[in-house]
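I wish you would study the pair of lines that follows with an eye to the fold:

===
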Amino acid sequence: MLYLALSLAPVAFLFTLVYLGDKYEREPLRYLIITYILGIFIAAPVILLGIYLSDLLGVDSTSTSISELLIYAFLVVGISEEGMKYLILRYYNYPHKEFDEPYDGIMYGVAISLGFASIENVLYVFMSQEPLTTGLMRMFTAVPAHAMFGVLMGYFAGKAKFLTPNKSLARQERLKGLGVAILFHGTYDFFLFLGVSWLVPFAIICLVLGISLALKAIRLHADQSPFRDLPPSDTI
């Protein structure tokens, strides 16, 4: 139970933090829970797609070539994980009636990402020979990273739906969000995959930069809410 709590505590904390950031019209919790569960369910197709792309491109995380690790980080891990998250956000959340303000893109993007991060974190912690150390390290690195990827992707989804004048530009904004998520995910993983201790700080720099942009995105979309002049909603 301790290791399970350790795995899920950062997920619960970050989910609550982003949820409370939606100050004017909070999403129904039941819908957020469904979205979170869908994030868990994409783990299997992510693994299968990752294996397929890895075999297709002839690369994996044990490669010694820098170019192969770049390909693996961006075109295998980045595309498989962020691509699956994008499909849920685009085809389940985006058309839904509850997606009714720019901030909702962030909220749903985070719910999907933290769903995926939950199952990933549980697996990493329980399969580790040092579960306590692994759980503590991932609490401050991998889990916040997934949340950050979700915020950035969701920011552009919210911008596409409510702040973009036509469908063509909206499509570009949505794909830009996917691209930014892949960029940060791939860069973060790449420096870790290199397995060189003095390069690890570059992964941390990427994480800190991404989090700072994510916090800015949260503030921007919160301020752009059409519900600002209405009493806060705590819909269940």
Remarks:
- Residues 5 and 122 are 9 Å apart (CA to CA).
- The mean pLDDT is 93.
- The radius of gyration is 18 Å.
